[in-house]
Amino acid sequence: MNRPGPLADAVVLKRAARRALAFRAAAVGVLALLLAALALATGAVHRSPGPRSASLVILDVSGSIGPAASATIVRTLRAVAAQGGRAGLVLFSDASQEAVPPTAPARTLLDYVRLFSGSGLRHNPWSDSFSAGTQVGVGLAAARVSLARAGIEQARVILVSDVGDAVTDIPLMRRELLAYARDPKLELRLAVVPGNDRSTVAIFRRLLGRRALAIGRPPPATARVAESRDFPLPAVAVAVAIALLLAAYELTNAPLAWREAA
Q: How far apart (Å, rounded) are the C-alpha atoms in residues 179 and 243?
């Protein structure tokens, strides 16, 4: 029986085999680390909080808000709904109520348009539970509480009112206006309805600036406030790294192909 003789390149092949084995072990270790990182990255994306930016309409439903204010209210609700993203609705008279949380889709505000169209202002679902008084400060404070409760970090807040505030509420209103003015993440705007209190409008103008006011219409949006959708960059980077590692592994660990010497 003929036995094969010793392979001339046995020493060289053994060295190559050891290098390949070491590379495989390193590649498997790196791959395991990358897979763990990918799991952590995707988990972080799924655990991320809800929308971090939103719009919020504060609507005055006190007795001084009559049918003449309907057009301003309807335009504002439709304008905020058209911006997309997330939006909420807070109603106030001398008390306040969160009608729509700021995490709701902005189009939800369209469901309230008919309630405040024309005579609906006098006979809406809150007519019996709210009194005819007006406390703007209470509405502004309720809006900030609503945003904080929902975890909203940045918001555009639109107050629709004649700002005919009760005398007892003026100190609270001033404090709330200062709180909004000092918070760079809150953008407070005023949509003034007909029959407004000019002296109170002047206070808003002085503390918030002339651009924060609009008469009979929704204030122009300085920037679209939409649902925050962070790009999952860490997860994508880890996935690309895994793909490159597998490609390198395939290129450097191809099976030996024997061929006859020329």
A: 50
Q: Are 78 and 176 in contact (CB under 8 A)?
A: no
Contact of 62 with 133, CB cutoff 8 Å: yes
How far is residue 164's CA from residue 210's CA, in Å, rounded to a whole number?
19
Residue 58: count other Cβ atoms within 10 Å of its Cβ: 24
Rounded to whole angstroms, the Cα distance separating 24 from 229 reads 38
pLDDT tens string 151-175: 998 999 999 999 988 889 999 999 9
| CA–CA distances in Å: residue 100 to residues 55, 90, 110, 153, 172 | 11, 7, 11, 17, 24
Pick the CATH number of 53-215 from 3.90.1150.10, 3.40.50.410, 3.30.230.10, 3.10.310.30: 3.40.50.410
Give 103-127 pLDDT, tens digit per residue. 999 999 999 998 888 655 555 555 5
Report d(CA 239, CA 231) in Å as an integer: 14
Residues 6+ apart with CB under 8 A from 8: none
What whole-number distance in Å separates Cα of residue 142 and Cα of residue 259? 82
Kindly give the residue spans of alpha helices, DSSP state H, lying in the chain: 10-47, 70-83, 136-150, 170-182, 198-208, 233-252
pTM (predicted TM-score) = 0.64
Residue with tokens 């030996």: 256
What are the residue boundaries of the structural domains of the chain, listed by start?
A: 13-47+230-252, 53-215
Nearest alpha-carbon partner for 58 in 146, 121, 128, 167: 146
CB of 92 closer than 8 Å to CB of 137: no
Which two structure tokens, joined as six digits, stand for 186? 């809150």
